[in-house]
Protein 1
Amino acid sequence: MTVNELCDVVRETSFAIHKYHRNGHLEKIYENALAHRLRKLGVKVEQQFPLTVYDEDGTVIGEYFADLFVEDCLIVELKACRNTAEEHVAQLLGYLKSSRIHDGLLINFGAPRLYIKKYVMD
């Protein structure tokens, strides 16, 4: 499965979760639901997965924990807030750059309308 196909699966699954659970739950509920449903589809998902952060010269300077790390190639950052903010985008872009992962999705379940946006680091 290509990363674009994988993103489509995550999007479709997120829409189904939002349709059923709606907004109003804590972020962890959506994290567990998305991980559960993706695993049922046969997709490899790791929750709170530690990703190494590298400095520009390749030195390891720490780690952070991705909400979901899907098929060893896609970081999924989840939110459960009224609106996404620039800080949320900056957080995901920082994760992508520092961990040298190419693709990420920012998903907000907290609003009446589901928000999903893909980000790519070149």
Note: The mean pLDDT is 95.
Protein 2
Amino acid sequence: MPPAGAGAPGSRSSLAPVRLEFAQKAFIVSGGRLLLVRKAASDPFHPGRWEVPGGRLEVAGDLDLDDHIRREVWEEVGIKIEPGPPFHLWQWFMPDRTAPSPGGRIRVVAAARRCRPLTLDAGLENQDSGDHLDDCAWVPLEEIGAYDLIPSLRPVMRAFLLPPR
């Protein structure tokens, strides 16, 4: 039997640290329109691109996953929702600017959820500076393809727009 490290690219201690985080994204539809948010020019990763409301779990603050997605949507667009089931899981990597050593990364594992709006007056008044949003819009489903989406969201959007089986 080969040693445990056989075939490995090198010592695990030589790899940059990766921190795991969890996020949820809310796909909120009303009257054939999906609520999208646009990243501001100040966004460090995707300035000017569109996505759906949501964000990363606050481990110490969010009571459960439904509480988490409700909080994120309220903070970003100021509406209340009824969380629905997840329909897609995916991941992305981003630089970890808080890592003690250079080269650290964050691996974000995310769940996309279908959510029902309980209120409809979306606005950006509740967001904090870290959200980096400058617009929100209820977009007709047939027009979503014209929006410049964050790249990692594109396959999720395709899954969302597929007819139910």
Note: Residues 65-77 form the longest helix (13 residues).
